[in-house]
Amino acid sequence: MDDPRSPLVSTDTHGPRTHTCGALRPEHVGQTVVLKGWVDTRRDLGGVIFIDLRDRHGLTQVVFEPHVSRAAHTLADSLRSEFVVSVRGTVRARDAEQVNPKLPTGEVEVYVDDLVILNTAEAPPFTISAHEEKRTLANEDLRLKYRYLDLRRPELQRNLILRHRFYQITRRHFDLHGFLEIETPVLMKSTPEGARDYLVPSRLHPGKFYALPQSPQTYKQILMVAGLDRYVQIVKCFRDEDLRADRQPEFTQVDVEMSFATEEQIYDLIEGLMAAVWRELKGVELPRPFPRMTYDEALRRYGSDKPDLRAGMEIHDVSAAFEGSGFRVFDGVLENGGKIVAIRVPGEGDRGRGAMDRLDKDVVRKRIGAGGLVYFKRPSDGSETYSSVKAEVLPTVHVERAIEAVGAQAGDLVLVLAGPAPTVYTQMGALRLHMAEELGLIGDSSDGPWRFLWVTDFPLLEWDPETQRFYAMHHPFTSPRPEDVPLLDDDPGQARARAYDLVLNGNEIGGGSIRIHDRAVQQRMFRLLGIDEAEAEERFGFLLNAFRYGAPPHGGIALGLDRIVMLLAGAGSLRDVIAFPKTQSAHEPMSNTPDVVDERQLVELHIRTVLPDKPGRA
Questions:
Q1: N or C: which end of the chain has fewer CB within 10 A?
Q2: CATH topology of domain 164-292+452-577
Q3: Helix (H) or strand (E) holding 17
Q4: Is this structure's pTM higher than 0.85?
């Protein structure tokens, strides 16, 4: 069967296909058609053989009956899953009781008068059927090893079709707004900021390396200096970092830059793109403009700089409610300048003690890392409010103040955390998302709801106590707000950036900023980041030199294409919307990448490999 000279394999005598396997409808009844595809399922019912023939467009049932063609019927007896075939036959209407409403082609079938087996197939390592009920999804490692088989699944094909359509809408949108699609180099200078670069050795320049771009940031800024005004590119980027479900070592972004741009222009441009994408792909009209929220407000209200607005349960600062309560834990937090925060969980006021103890131990303490959970329950029957802290330790009057502050009603649960800010906000944000997931308020869905948000006014810098230095929160080319420029000398940690992120359902799907276009301000920024003049010249001299010659004000954004398509598809992982993804260990199982190379190649590149010690070796 696996011999390429198998007697079953024949030359295709049917010519090109007339229709795809998803195209036939009642209006085609009586027509002679040619279909080509893979055998999805085979059923033999008393001498009549039924085959579901599959291609990326759908399924069509084809029928082999001896009285139509004995030769085709005899050959069809040898068909097995994933054989590649061509059939010629006549479209007939199915009997009313045989109509399959689950299939677009379910009202018709093709009676075959000639069959050509174009190729045979070994039994696949897992079932591929387009009929979801007829397969058990294999583990991901196996599916990635046989990705060419996994990609035959309709779900993955739909995801890649969705991705293709996203490309087309994006290109049309930016062309309509006067943008030029310009390619930037894939082999560039290493300018590591944050994630590690992937390095490529140069054969012609021994001891020197190219880097694969983490982003075309410097190149697109230089395009603005060059007067090209409006740039866009759907581009591959590379980061050598630890992975998770929503990260890949190579990823695709929609990269955008505009000269003379304001934040409002960029918001309007990108909202227009999102509106076009959701209109064409989901049939949804997005309300515009998207809401906006400063970084500080997002942290205080939702405990995250990428809040999921679907979850509700806004965070409340209830510190004032507990002032002078005499509860030692709360008093200590407030004396040290910390905060007491709470969320209202609707309809959970009847939760039992055991469930609350598990929430405190397994989620609050172990997973979130908070010191402990205080909670109040207002039972749905209107009975007395229950407090997890006894009244003699935490007086009821303070509990009632907190309950009133969060707006809790009968049947609600109030969860309270205390600690230093901003840590306590992020801890409550994590608890908020846990409760939302548990209650089914959020999750992967291709049907929405779609809650977009612009998060603005990020800090320009963040302080790392371990290295005792500032780092750029976005990147070193982000412009400070004009009114905050004086803070760069006196209190740089308080300076705000002209930076913005686009968030959708708790996922950051884009980020950008208005850039620094003045050489002196850029050098000042480098100094704040601990990059002296010599290092700045070595790493970014080409950009600084370009700024000598009339760089216009400019700004832009990069959208995470993989992540947007993942959300549109309702997929649980980026790997489900990328044709050939890497695993969480940055390995591609199908081709076994990365792999060793021939020693002669290393010699040509002037490279000697040094392998790490094996575990346990001294």
A1: C
A2: BirA Bifunctional Protein; domain 2 (3.30.930)
A3: none
A4: yes
